[in-house]
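Students often ask why we bother encoding 3D structure as a string. The short answer is that it lets us treat folding as translation between two languages. Here is a chain of 319 residues written in the first language.
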Amino acid sequence: MKAIRVHEFGSPEVMHLQETSDLKAGPGEAVVQVRAAGVNPVDAYIRSGAYARKPALPYTPGTDAGGVVESVGTGVEVRPGTRVYTSGSVSGVYAEKALCREVDVHDLPANVSFSQGAAIGVPYSTAFRAIFHRAHATAGETVLVHGGSGGVGIAAIQIARAAGMRVFATAGSPEGRDLVLRQGAHLAFDHNAPDYMDQVVKSTGGRGLDVVLEMLANKNLAKDLKSLASGGRIVVIGSRGSVEIDPRDTMVREAAILGMLLFNTSERDLISIHSGLCAGLGNGILRPVVGQEIPLAEAARAHREVMEPGARGKIVLIQ
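And here it is in the second language, the structure alphabet:
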């Protein structure tokens, strides 16, 4: 079978499409025919060698895919021929086939395409965990989603809106702001405007935000703190450097800054996450948005583009 292989950490060009050995499912495992593979920023961080957790070389990137179960090992309940999305992989999903643990294979409803299935794993799990497991957000609260037109942002908008929250989102282009409004945001703001956070707070009637989902904390965290209501929470989902804040902004609001890393999620919480996601996908409340489909052989281009600003949906690799 063919797979993208990385033999050294570095630029996107270290990824090469190669012939590799076929896969065989062991106990508790399944082999999935990959129809589409999701490209996440974390994949690029890992490939570059800049991520804290590094796989052993050589390796195949990726955890999120949409596909069909080809074969299973002993003790596995999912049957060959089942449409699935994956939220993890033993072998990596930038490939024609992927070896996965059964716990990382989830039913993909017929109303969701394989490319949409590849857009679920990291983005929707991250958004679900940030909203419910970290921020403990509830219906009626006001949530700001920074970078709302990206994969995690779109997931967060859909999930928060479905849970009865008032949802604000930012995007850097008119097209991005139109997209977040179509995904369910009540209001959209231009995060390139110098006074956009003042506009956000004004839209709450001056009360402030209950929850902020922060994708670029090194740029926004200090401003986020000043925008919070009493008891407000910021969940730091992404950051590309350090930042200076005034601790008094946390004191006067009794605010909380909460870090989040999806890899820290417990097995119990993962079950909760994917039970909720499967239900939302099945009834059509959750609708992954695919921005680009790029051939598997052009994985390097996908890694360059996933790090560019102005995302409008998910980038996926197709066979």
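Translate back mentally: DSSP finds ten helices and 15 strands in the chain. Keep this in mind for the problem set.
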